[in-house]
Design goal:
Layout lengths: L17 H5 L2 H10 L11 H11 L16 E5 L4 E5 L6 E5 L2 E2 L8 E9 L8 H6 L19 E4 L5 E5 L8 E3 L3 E4 H10 L5 E4 L1
Parallel strand pairs: 1-10, 4-8, 7-9
Antiparallel strand pairs: 1-2, 2-3, 5-6, 5-10, 6-7
């Protein structure tokens, strides 16, 4: 995989203001639950799952999935928990491990596109998330506790994003409420390459 970049995820960056935000016990409890291990689906045999994912985590060609590379193209393979990116005629190809939705009913497949690039994402849980997790906070500003990490690509589907995460346990696992998550260093790289209008296909 000489074309793809893999490196160990960086440590959490300390951002000013996080201490004040965590000073409230109720909010701190909500933040902890948003980023807890309980938001990652337990798998009976992680060794078997990891082995299967590695075997299917391979370079793909874009032609079976897209008619062109205008504005670049992103393919998310839910089963192999991989995100593929092809640049717009520049020969750039990247392959990133990703987190995927917790369950099939939270998973959406099909064609969409990048509609907004957010360099400092903040986070508000959707109404359905709050129904499932009433202790979650209504809002988390940008920073080290934000579930969307350091960058976010909004898709044309309401509430759906490709974003980073500060919780590196989630990558390669079923751990999201519908979005696709990447290590922060990977979403930052993808963010720099992707455009508003980049085509996206989730399979």
């Amino acid at each position: 995989m000489s074309d793809s970049k893999f490196s160990k995820p960086g440590r959490r960056a300390f951002l000013a203001g996080s201490a004040a935000m965590l000073a409230s016990p109720a909010l701190a409890q909500g933040l902890e639950s948003v980023n807890s291990a309980a938001t990652t689906m337990g798998e009976r045999d992680l060794t078997e799952t990891t082995r299967r994912n590695i075997s299917s985590f391979r370079r793909l060609e874009w032609q079976p999935y897209f008619s062109n590379l205008r504005n670049g193209a992103i393919l998310v393979d839910i089963d192999s928990r991989a995100l593929h990116y092809w640049g717009d005629g520049d020969g750039v190809y990247r392959l990133y491990p990703s987190s995927v939705p917790l369950s099939e009913d939270l998973t959406r497949r099909g064609r969409t596109r990048v509609t907004l690039k957010d360099p400092e994402p903040d986070w508000r849980p959707t109404p359905s998330m709050l129904e499932r997790n009433p202790d979650w906070p209504d809002y988390i500003p940008p920073g080290p506790d934000n579930p969307l990490g350091t960058r976010s690509l909004h898709l044309s589907w309401t509430y759906y994003r490709i974003h980073g995460t500060h919780d590196t346990r989630k990558i390669g696992r079923q751990s999201s409420n519908g979005c696709i998550g990447l290590y922060n260093e990977h979403i930052e790289e993808l963010y720099a390459m992707a455009k508003v209008g980049t085509q996206v296909l989730l399979i």
